[in-house]
Amino acid sequence: MAEAKPQEEMRKLKEQGPGRTIISDAVVAKIAAIAAREVPGVHELGGAAERAIGGALTRITGAGRQPGVGVEVGEEEAAIDLNMIMVYGQSIPDVANQVRQNVTNQIESLTGLRVKEVNISVNDLFLPGEERPAGEREERVA
User: Fold this and answer.
1) Taking phi first (over 0 means left), then psi (-120 to 50 degrees means alpha), and beta for anything else, what does residue 129 get?
2) In degrees, to the nearest 5, what angle opens at C-alpha 87 toward C-alphas 82 and 93?
3) How does 105-121 read in b/e, with b if 16+ C-beta sit within 10 Å?
4) Residues linked to residue 42 through DSSP beta bridges, in sequence order
5) Considering only CA atoms, which of 16, 21, 120, 130 is closest in space to residue 75?
6) pLDDT digit string (tens) for the chain, length 142 residues
7) Which CATH architecture has domain 22-128?
8) Is residue 27 helix, strand or coil?
9) Pick from 35, 110, 131, 134: most CB atoms within 10 A?
10) In this structure, are residues 27 and 66 in contact, taking their beta carbons and an 8 Å threshold?
């Protein structure tokens, strides 16, 4: 079974009859976060501080903000910004391209929105065998 193109999905949404279907930024951000994490070589989204602040806000407000993910959603298209920690030893350009492709495919197929761009910032590396990414290690004084 062939997948429908985003333009076809938007046409279907518009032809559903009276009323509108609105896809929130939070839904698009969640899809982007899941799709990015599916790619081998991605350790985590966001930095330690962003994840801690996001966790605190979620506990206070109950809102499910996705750390490391920013989205701008229009009526027919979306733009995605990702901040991530990658696994050391993986090709950053290769992993970034795989993330970009997977995020685009998932958002377009699940929402019908056309993905205009996926911007990726790699802000740290995770060293396998260590609990924390390289930039989050504590300095120890003897």
Assistant:
1) left
2) 60
3) ebbbeebbbbbeebebe
4) 86
5) 21
6) 455 566 666 666 666 677 778 899 999 999 999 999 999 999 999 975 554 555 554 555 455 568 899 999 998 999 999 999 999 999 999 999 999 999 999 999 999 999 999 999 999 999 988 766 655 555 545 4
7) 2-Layer Sandwich (3.30)
8) helix
9) 35
10) no
pTM of the predicted structure, to 2 decimals: 0.74
What are the sequence ranges of the domains in the chain? 22-128
Sign of the CA dihedral with 44 first, then 46, 50, and 55 last: negative
Which residues, at least 6 apart from 120, have a Cβ–Cβ distance to it below 8 Å? Answer: 82, 84, 96, 99, 100
